[in-house]
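Limitations
The structure tokens in this dataset are predictions for the assembled complex, not deposited experimental models. Users should treat interface geometry with appropriate caution, especially where small molecules or nucleic acid strands are included. An illustrative entry is reproduced here so readers can see what is and is not provided.
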Amino acid sequence: MGFHRINLTVNGEMEQVDVTGYMTLLDMLREKLVLTGTKNGCAAGECGACTVMMNGEPVNSCLVLAVECDQALIVTVEGLARDTQLDPIQKAIMDAGGVQCGYCTPGVLIASRALLDRNPDPSESEIRAALVGNLCRCTGYIRIIEGVQEAAKM
Amino acid sequence: MVQIIGCENRLTSIVRLGISDRLEEFYNTMNAYPGLPEFDYLKPETYAEASEFLVTHAGEARPFIGGTDLFVQMRDRVLRPKYLVDVKGLEGMDEISFDNSGGLTIGAGVNMNRLIAAPEVAEHYQILAEAAQSVASYQLRTRATIVGNICNASPAGDTIGASLLLDGMLNIYGGQGMRQEALSTFFLGPGETILQTGDIVTSIWFPRPPDGVKGKYIKLGRNKLSDLSIVGVTAVGYPDADTVSGTHFKLALASVAPVPLVVEKVGEILGVTPVTEETLKDAAEAAMEACTPIDDVRGSARYRKLMVRNLSLNALKDVWHQLSLLNA
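Predicted assembly:
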């Protein structure tokens, strides 16, 4: 099985990576680029812990092949903050207490950022619908939703 | 900054060294969520190239678009293709087009979020957007496609009912060039279709729907959102002067037969008599009698039958209500 050389942009940095055909985007981020903020939960597209932005849209990185990301723009949770300035969604979810164990948080932040990018003023039901694919066992979701609502006001 | 990072994890190293499948299996027993099995990835430039590769590697190669179902089946070792052929970059795969006489064509690579957001779909094919909206989550729909949902041929496929009722036709590239196949005769069994080795579905086409068409999709899952359906009911209706009732109804069922099921009797019952609460109930009963569900992890056959009756009634009533608002 051969390797494929891909060029892509991850969090604003150009990267060139050699990947096998069967390596997922999730594995490439975590193991090749050591961006371990993105988590592996179910590896089946159900829990959303691995959500990253691919060309401006959120995807389950466990269900995307790394080799498909040639020339793609990827943003992971590590790419949300600008220097020391947190993204409003990071600050709002933190302030709302929307983080407990933190495992789902990277995926929640990316899915929420993507929602606010396409709909800057979402209703509560729109927030709930956008986060259907992000499972959280700790917070009961209420504080996450409040955090997204607060971020929308920033 | 350009950099190549060469560190490999343990599994990758084991696989690269070519040590037997048994070792990989051992690793997987230690790991609740193993990665994908080894395969090679190809991205052909043309349909001819893609199709030829699929033919010459029959049984070893599979075409894929979003991979949202395929990768899960591969992860679970249900499927172990040696080659995956990425066809979504091929010409026309990414296009949606609509015109009043020609209908709607959706390229096989168009993802469900794009389909839902397309104004022409929202205006003329609302039931299709409604069904797509019920599929999993937003981030999954960034990759999932309606053609993938159809070719996957799961009896639970959410968008299949709407596609059947809107008289969808698949455009297929194959050994003899392009051809069209009706969805009504496309499904043979769970995961089985009439597609031959080397066939690549390029797009799905829908005729312009009848004026005033209304639809409803009701999906019963174990939770309110994002789950696979225990029962899925799609109903559409439109004014039709050729029927006694003045309305033509159609109903399709998901997850209650080996293939997505269109219940012809619903249209017959609601065509030859005026539509009333009673005839709607008769039609819902007919839907219940027509389905042949099985017991599985998501629900028993008996429960599914009863839910088909109840939800068919709800869906038909909803469509009937929407149509009466049209006449009001």
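Some entries come with short summary sentences. For this one: DSSP finds 13 helices and 14 strands in chain B.
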